[in-house]
């Protein structure tokens, strides 16, 4: 019986070390995810401001959106670093993180939404330039059209919000499914172990 105590203490020490490593991964992921999430939220708000601003000529607006896109894409390595930590968490079979509200699925979807919104702003501005040039409209007329459109485009804004909520809900449900599968596998292996 006394011979089993050192073995048991060794197992406890190994488990403590594993839990400490998992916690370090949770904290590292949370720091990176909180930074990326805040950046995406800030850039999304800045893009909305940029799109609604309409200052300068359309060519200047187009260049401003292109510069915004280039500046935003420089943040991609931080998202990739966060992805690497997330993969380490998944390899360690760690699915909960009380240190952050973000998970990798929600960050990926938010990044994709931001990229799509930037591309949409670029296309919209390029189309307005083409319309202006082909129809002989003035910058003022295009600006008035844009303001009217944005004023009455409440449905599109609501659908973008709804899309983001749906994407985040899908991420949460997939995380719950993974947790259920892990718990089921643990329960079945535990019950098999009791029978042996």
Describe this structure in words.
The structure is a single chain. This protein has 196 residues and is mainly α. It has a single domain (4-93, 100-152), classed as Methane Monooxygenase Hydroxylase, Chain G, domain 1. The protein is built from six helices and no strands. The protein has helices at residues 4-53, 58-73, 76-91, 104-135, 139-152, 154-195. Helix 1 (4-53) packs antiparallel against helix 2, helix 1 packs antiparallel against helix 3 (76-91) and helix 2 packs antiparallel against helix 4. The longest helix is centred in the first third of the chain and has 50 residues, at 4-53. The radius of gyration is 25 Å and the shape is rod-shaped.
In short:
This protein is mainly alpha-helical. The protein has six helices and no strands.
Q: Which labels suit this protein?
A:
196 residues; mainly alpha; Methane Monooxygenase Hydroxylase, Chain G, domain 1; rod-shaped
């Amino acid at each position: 019986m006394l011979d089993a105590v050192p073995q048991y203490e060794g197992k406890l020490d190994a488990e403590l070390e594993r839990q400490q490593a998992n916690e370090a991964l949770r904290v590292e992921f949370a720091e990176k995810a909180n930074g990326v999430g805040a950046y995406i939220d800030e850039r999304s708000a800045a893009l909305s401001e940029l799109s609604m601003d309409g200052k300068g000529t359309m060519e200047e607006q187009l260049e401003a959106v292109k510069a915004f896109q280039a500046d935003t894409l420089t943040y991609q390595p931080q998202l990739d670093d966060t992805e690497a930590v997330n993969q380490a968490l998944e390899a360690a079979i760690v699915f909960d993180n009380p240190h952050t509200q973000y998970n990798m699925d929600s960050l990926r979807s938010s990044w994709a939404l931001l990229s799509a919104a930037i591309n949409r702003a670029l296309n919209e501005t390029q189309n307005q330039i083409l319309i202006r040039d082909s129809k002989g409209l003035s910058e003022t007329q295009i600006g008035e059209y844009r303001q009217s459109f944005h004023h009455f485009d409440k449905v599109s804004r609501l659908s973008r919000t709804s899309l983001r909520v749906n994407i985040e809900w899908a991420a949460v449900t997939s995380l719950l499914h993974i947790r259920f599968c892990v718990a089921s596998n643990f329960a079945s292996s535990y019950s098999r172990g009791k029978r042996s």
